[in-house]
Design brief:
4 helices, mainly alpha, 63% helix
């Protein structure tokens, strides 16, 4: 098992490659155990919440992600729900 920090570094290394295709990774999720699918969603949601936070440091390289994440966070505050660990 790897730590959260090691996973974050692995993700960083993966996306720092112009041939990386996030849709190919996403396409593998339906083949995972249902509980793990929900856990992956919880991870994605947590990443969006961090990137969309008001105090998240931005410049032109990450501004679009921040702006979109901020909109998603606002939507989730109104319409989102608790995603349990089951």
């Amino acid at each position: 098992m790897i730590s959260e920090k090691e996973l974050a570094k692995t993700l960083e290394d993966a996306v720092n490659n112009f041939s990386f295709n996030p849709r190919k990774v996403a396409a593998e999720v339906p083949f995972m155990h249902r509980t793990l699918q929900q856990s992956i969603y919880r991870l994605c949601k947590a990443i969006i919440e961090v990137i969309g936070a008001d105090d998240y440091a931005t410049d032109l390289r990450n501004q679009a992600a921040h702006d979109e994440a901020k909109g998603i966070v606002a939507y989730l505050k109104e319409n989102g729900r608790h995603i349990p660990m089951i």
